[in-house]
């Protein structure tokens, strides 16, 4: 259903069964769950889908090794189950990731870990080989009944330094185990959204739609057109993560403080020496202050993170310079000989972990689990179900939990589960991707690399995209492996309203450090034609995007019009 059709339907009938506020990964997950049960459900997101914390994760799909010492065994077991489901249900975006932990001593952390487990201390400490061995053994035990990846292994100092010559020479040993990573988390969320709407015409969604309230009840403000509509849901689900308290206040829901989020910032670095030094592994290591950090190869670059800082206003978060320096310092600790130049930092991003409110002075001890709480009806406002906490890996089980509570509240029963339901282009994913790509290339007269790119970006949905773009001449856009027709299809089919939607979420162009002024202008030209924008509107959009790019992501591109703007390099 197109945006205009959705708004027209709401204008005609504002009564809906369930309103979900928040189009991040958890909001989309509960939306999919309810849509598959045939529920009349509307999802409203104030920005773009997956543009908040769901665009700022570490790109890890993991059990949470460090949560074991907090005693969160149930969460780790659940996370590992959901990780393995994603490996099966979204193989186009989620893949195994060998993960190596450098170890600097043998016994450190045993006593501290024990008293932390008992709640007698909050302070982090360095983990030695025995503590790490215990954690990885539990990891293997939790996945023994469905072994999808190898069990862990230890290496001595000599073998560790031979495998990773650039690693800190003080390393005494290392442990390697397997978790997973997600290449395009925003696209996975979008595919779930589209799957849900394809499954049921009673499921509708709007991005750039703010929910508020007036004397008559709830309202929806379409920020694209400026129109405001009344809404009369029988149940509200608040899935806004770090914004839950702000959302409750905006809609008039009377509730105590629920959230206490922390900010996590990451860098994308284009340094070939570092990329090669990782040997295709994620290195999961402790900084000198005991904080867990990560770095791993990501889309030809290296992702490094992260920080953990309490925040009060999630709308203001970005990776600040002191965080950048902290991350680089942590890198210098584990790979001391590798130096990162300023121009090699091609992208930075930051998001808010949606943690429950806590007075704990050490953020690492705040529980990472998820739960839901009802706020009972008041005045013109129906009951509100708040989704509190959670981590990206467990979005499916969290969405199922919220959906089941909503169904029970509404007197309905579940008819379909999602445990084994493939997502988007993960359906019918080939066991031999090379053969599949060869047939796709032959059928649509594509080069083999082009077919492989399409499979990586869209999974098996690439077949329909290849058919559409090969029907007419389809020139490639300047300095990228995306084509004109491909971008046009994204705009037409994927709820695009801005340049940021395209470059930051529908594609990996920005995060991979591949943006140029020439490319921005080429895509803006396509977008302006599709949207019917005037030259002035296109100019405003361009200025807004470049400002966002520099302020939020540390990517300065010159804001110059016309021919003078055609530079192929990012200007630092």
Could you characterize the architecture of this molecule?
The chain folds into five domains: 3-53 and 186-257 and 368-410, FAD/NAD(P)-binding domain; 63-180, no CATH class; 262-353, D-Amino Acid Oxidase, subunit A, domain 2 (D-Amino Acid Oxidase, Chain A, domain 2, 2-Layer Sandwich); 430-470; 472-563, Orthogonal Bundle (Helicase, Ruva Protein, domain 3). It has 572 residues and is α+β, with helices and mostly antiparallel strands. It starts with a helix and ends in a 19-residue tail after the last helix. Residues 113-122 and 561-572 have low confidence and may be disordered. It has helices spanning 3-12, 25-36, 73-89, 110-117, 129-142, 157-163, 185-199, 244-251, 272-277, 321-334, 395-409, 433-444, 448-458, 462-469, 484-493, 499-506, 517-531, 535-553; strands at 15-21, 41-44, 60-61, 94-103, 153-156, 173-182, 203-206, 209-214, 217-222, 228-238, 262-269, 282-286, 292-298, 301-305, 309-310, 345-353, 370-375, 383-389. The strands form two sheets. Strands 3, 4, 5, 6, 11, 12, 13, 14, 15 and 16 form a ten-stranded mixed sheet that branches. Strands 1, 2, 7, 8, 9, 10, 17 and 18 form an eight-stranded mixed sheet that branches. Strand 1, helix 2 and strand 2 form a beta-alpha-beta unit. It is globular. Residues 18-394 form the FAD dependent oxidoreductase domain.
């Amino acid at each position: 259903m197109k945006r205009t059709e959705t708004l027209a339907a709401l204008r005609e009938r504002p009564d809906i069964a369930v309103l979900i506020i928040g189009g991040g990964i958890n909001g989309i997950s509960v939306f999919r769950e309810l849509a598959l049960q045939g529920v009349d459900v509307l999802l409203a997101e104030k920005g773009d889908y997956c543009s908040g914390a769901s665009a700022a994760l570490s790109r890890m799909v993991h059990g949470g090794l460090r949560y074991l010492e907090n005693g969160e065994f149930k969460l780790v077991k659940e996370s590992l189950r959901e990780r393995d489901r994603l490996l099966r249900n979204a193989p186009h975006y989620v893949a195994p990731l060998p993960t190596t932990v450098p170890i600097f001593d043998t016994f450190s952390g045993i006593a501290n870990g024990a008293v932390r487990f008992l709640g007698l201390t909050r302070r982090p400490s360095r983990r030695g080989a025995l503590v790490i061995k215990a954690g990885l053994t539990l990891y293997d035990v939790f996945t023994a009944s469905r072994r999808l990846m190898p069990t862990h292994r230890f290496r001595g100092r000599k073998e560790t330094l031979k495998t990773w010559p650039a690693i800190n020479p003080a390393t005494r040993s290392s442990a390697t185990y397997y978790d997973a990573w997600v290449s395009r988390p925003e696209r996975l969320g979008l595919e779930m959204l589209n799957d849900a709407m394809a499954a049921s015409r009673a499921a509708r969604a709007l991005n750039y739609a703010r929910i508020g309230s007036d004397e008559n009840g709830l309202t929806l403000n379409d920020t694209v057109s400026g129109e405001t509509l009344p809404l009369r849901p029988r149940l509200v689900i608040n899935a806004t993560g770090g914004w839950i308290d702000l959302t409750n206040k905006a809609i008039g829901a009377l509730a105590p403080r629920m959230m206490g989020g922390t900010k996590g910032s990451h860098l994308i670095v284009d340094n070939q020496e570092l990329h090669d030094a990782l040997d295709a592994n994620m290195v999961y290591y402790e900084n000198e202050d005991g904080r867990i950090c990560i770095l791993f190869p990501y889309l030809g670059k290296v992702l490094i993170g992260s920080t953990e800082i309490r925040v009060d206003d999630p709308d203001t978060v970005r990776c600040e310079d002191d965080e950048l320096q902290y991350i680089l310092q942590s890198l210098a600790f584990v790979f001391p000989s590798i130096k990162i130049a300023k121009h090699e930092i091609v992208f930075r991003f930051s998001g808010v972990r949606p943690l429950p409110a806590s007075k704990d002075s050490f953020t690492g001890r705040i529980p990472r689990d998820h739960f839901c709480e009802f706020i009972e009806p008041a005045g013109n406002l129906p009951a509100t179900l708040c989704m509190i906490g959670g981590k990206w890996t467990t979005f499916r089980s969290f969405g199922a939990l919220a959906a089941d509570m909503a169904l029970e509240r509404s007197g309905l029963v579940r008819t379909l589960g999602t445990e084994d339901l493939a997502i988007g282009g993960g359906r019918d994913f080939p066991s031999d991707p090379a053969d599949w790509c060869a047939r796709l290339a032959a059928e649509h007269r594509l080069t083999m690399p082009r077919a492989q790119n399409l499979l990586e970006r869209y999974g098996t949905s690439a077949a329909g995209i290849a058919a559409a773009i090969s029907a007419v001449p389809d020139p490639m856009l300047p300095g990228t492996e995306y084509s004109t027709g491909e971008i046009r299809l994204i705009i037409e089919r994927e709820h695009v309203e801005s340049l940021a939607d395209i470059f930051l979420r529908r594609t990996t162009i920005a995060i991979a450090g591949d943006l140029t002024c020439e490319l921005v202008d080429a895509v803006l030209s396509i977008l302006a034609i599709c949207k019917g924008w005037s030259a002035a509107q296109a100019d405003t959009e361009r200025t807004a995007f470049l400002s966002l790019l520099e302020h939020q992501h540390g990517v300065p591109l010159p804001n110059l019009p016309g021919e003078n703007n055609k530079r192929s390099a990012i200007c630092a």
